Amino acid sequence: MSAIRLLVLGAVRQHGRAHGYQVRNDLEYWGAHEWSNAKPGSIYHALKQMAKQGLLHAHEIAPSTAGGPPRTEYEITDRGTEEFLRLLREALTAYDQKMDVKSAAIGFMVDLPRAEVVSLLKERIRRIEEWRTNVTEHYVPEGGPEQLGHIGEIMNLWVHTADAEAEWTQGLIGRIEGGAHTFTGEGEPFVGVLLDGQENPYATGERTAGP
Question: What does pTM read for this prediction?
Answer without folding.
Answer: 0.83
